[in-house]
Amino acid sequence: xxxxxxxxxxxxxxxxxxxxxxxxxxxxxxxxxxxxxxxxxxxxxxxxxxxxxxxxxxxxxxxxxxxxxxxxxxxxxxxxxxxxxxxxxxxxxxxxxxxxxxxxxxxxxxxxxxxxxxxxxxxxxxxxxxxxxxxxxxxxxxxxxxxxxxxxxxxxxxxxxxxxxxxxxxxxxxxxxxxxxxxxxxxxxxxxxxxxxxxxxxxxxxxxxxxxxxxxxxxxxxxxxxxxxxxxxxxxxxxxxxxxxxxxxxxxxxxxxxxxxxxxxxxxxxxxxxxxxxxxxxxxxxxxxxxxxxxxxxxxxxxxxxxxxxxxxxxxxxxxxxxxxxxxxxxxxxxxxxxxxxxxxxxxxxxxxxxxxxxxxxxxxxxxxxxxxxxxxxxxxxxxxxxxxxxxxxxxxxxxxxxxxxxxxxxxxxxxxxxxxxxxxxxxxxxxxxxxxxxxxxxxxxxxxxxxxxxxxxxxxxxxxxxxxxxxxxxxxxxxxxxxxxxxxxxxxxxxxxxxxxxxxxxxxxxxxxxxxxxxxxxxxxxxxxxxxxxxxxxxxxxxxxxxxxxxxxxxxxxxxxxxxxxxxxxxxxxxxxxxxxxxxxxxxxxxxxxxxxxxxxxxxxxxxx
Length: 610
Known about the structure:
Elements: H1 2-60, H2 69-72, E1 75-77, E2 82-84, E3 101-105, H3 109-117, E4 124-129, E5 133-135, H4 140-143, E6 154-156, H5 157-164, E7 167-170, E8 172-177, E9 182-186, E10 193-197, E11 200-203, E12 208-209, H6 226-243, H7 250-256, E13 258-262, H8 266-286, E14 296-300, H9 312-324, E15 327-330, E16 333-338, E17 342-347, E18 357-362, E19 365-368, E20 372-373, H10 376-384, E21 394-396, E22 410-412, E23 417-419, H11 428-435, H12 445-458, H13 469-476, H14 486-499, H15 507-530, E24 547-551, E25 556-560, E26 565-567, H16 570-582, H17 587-603
Parallel strand pairs: 3-4, 3-11, 4-7, 11-22, 13-14, 13-19, 14-15, 21-23
Antiparallel strand pairs: 1-2, 5-6, 8-9, 9-10, 12-20, 16-17, 17-18, 24-25, 25-26
Helix pairs in contact: 3-15, 6-7, 11-12
Main location: mitochondrion
Organism: Umbelopsis ramanniana AG
InterPro entries: EF-hand-dom_pair (IPR011992), EF_Hand_1_Ca_BS (IPR018247), EF_hand_dom (IPR002048), FAD/NAD-bd_sf (IPR036188), FAD/NAD-binding_dom (IPR023753), NDH-2 (IPR045024), NDH2-like_C (IPR054585)
């Protein structure tokens, strides 16, 4: 048997060599084709980009010849006789623009959402902002410690305005002349003022942090802008580096590594969680391990619980998790003063609530994150209009029109605004008069439905509570008479007033308001061309709460509109990331986020100070 095999060996050897030679030739051919493909693809790609560059260069040659003369030499006008910028450097003499002028002030969630919903042919759009980018604010805490790169949260605003063929001016909004419909702005480079005319104006300037009259806030950090995130990152890393020096005294080291967060809302809690993750994972890896013994993170909250706007079960979970991780939470506390190295606050005395205890906490870093207040521009607008009585925001009606502007040409959205929320009970006679068709002093079910429609138009914040009219009618028709008497209606309105609250100042609200307003003013433009009344095409704004999320350190919590509550777990972290990933305004930022999270998982956070 073996002799037969031995006899066939030369033939087998020759056959294998033939196959090997053929395979080698095939590999060589594949490699050759691959090389040719890569080379030709690269050449074609380079040629394409070079040709595109040539097109761009050629289109720019002589561009000044098509720009209207008024773009270079604006006419003077307005109350202060300033230049009125009615034409722009990207306008063309070949295009006669008769569209109404829409000016949007701001580049945040509300402003960008308005632009995304507009029809290109409806308005001549100009966006005014101090920043030439859109900032994805929900992920700012992640950028403060190097989990995400700063650039991953930014989208150039000119890329967004280009989709709408809108103009962009990087200037500071200073004032509005409502009579002449002129926005006064300041060139930050020269300090010179000029006007931008409008037919419709959208104010979406955001908000600043509330001071609560606390002394010494200049010693703290805030987290509203990308500049804030950069300052925080630099300070945290500087504290770590100084603490790592052998010459730093033990008490000073302990103070430097004491991180205090004033405010137990989502921003404060998420920053504390991100900071703790960094100190717990990266500090012990790259810094002397002895530093970890002196690290402390403290949250000072004025309410009974942190994340008090969430369900109680979520607040309890967050507090227990932080307690396990040695993040100290001080509740029922009021910050009174913040000096250069200490936070002074009072805590309710369990034995004597009327006599709070005063305590002092040394710190090396302090974040102030306690509510919002009006920006200087918004406050200036509020003080000019007699109808504006709110202390913290501009007041609008149900269609987001600014109160106090007779022609309804000005809107306010986002954190700088709040929808008027009058008590429905005080308007009970108006509601009855609008719906009681037979004037018998009671409402049948059909009349009650009509009353509900009237209330939704007049009191849009109550819309959510008026969605199930049949159930409401049955609940408050106590005597089962088939009608609602005036006393029964009074009880109903009293209960609705208790449930109806102002909308929170969140990115979700600003986003929905922007989308609503963009669609509304596009409908108004079309209706105007067709001679149709504005009231026929615009319905009051209705907010649909989709849910709330918060990062708690390698996990997340959340509650959703359909009633589901997400309480911890690794999957919750990835759901939290997925939601914010899907909300990005461009493919570029989505890709950047994916890369940052991958880099962090492999190599840890970037601890370089910038």
